[in-house]
Amino acid sequence: MGRPWQIYLDLQCPYSKKVHDQLEALRAEFGAEFDMTVVLTVLPWHYSAFMALSTAKVVESEKGQEARDAFIQACYAEQDSFMNAKTATLSRKETFAIFAEIAARACGCDEESVIGAAQDWEAATSPAWSEMKVGIAAGVAGSPKHVIDGKIVADTDSGWGVAEWKAKLALL
After folding, report:
1. Residue of 1, 27, 6 lying closest to 136 (CA atoms)
2. 68 and 20 Cβ atoms separated by less than 8 Å
3. Does a cis peptide bond (omega within 30 degrees of 0) precede residue 144?
4. Which of 44, 45, 65, 156 counts the highest number of beta carbons within 10 A?
5. Long-range CB contacts (< 8 A, 24+ apart) of 119-122?
6. In 3-state terms, what secondary structure has residue 108?
7. Residue 47, H or E segment
8. What is the pLDDT of residues 13-72, one digit of tens each?
9. How many CB atoms lie within 10 A of CB 96?
């Protein structure tokens, strides 16, 4: 196991999407030294972000970590479908249906089962809140954020690729 590198992302955040789009290249370059994990968090002005996180927890519980990763990937690919302008007037069930459809396409989940479970305290809300508390405990406020060896890495940019991270890591 390498040094811990937690990457805090909000599924509705376009800047988090930029970071996620670089994740494969970062893991390829730095995976021998760092154990990179994605921790989902929520920005309060992203109306659907907590519902996305809750659905991710259901997918993880039902299908495992790989399915959760596939769901996250699919959410970023379909992010425009659940931005505030698209969901502000929808009911919670209608918004959860968007995420259930994404989960069905990405991981073969049953849509109705996901809609029900994603609204359940024990199945989704409590686990989602627990994942958010990891970021709170680490001092993360905002997204995307990077925590390496338990310390928030200041002055990073969501557009950074491997070259920029090499330069930043050399300073840590």
Report:
1. 6
2. no
3. yes
4. 156
5. 119/54, 119/92, 119/93
6. coil
7. none
8. 999 999 999 999 999 999 999 999 999 999 999 999 999 999 999 999 999 999 999 999
9. 26
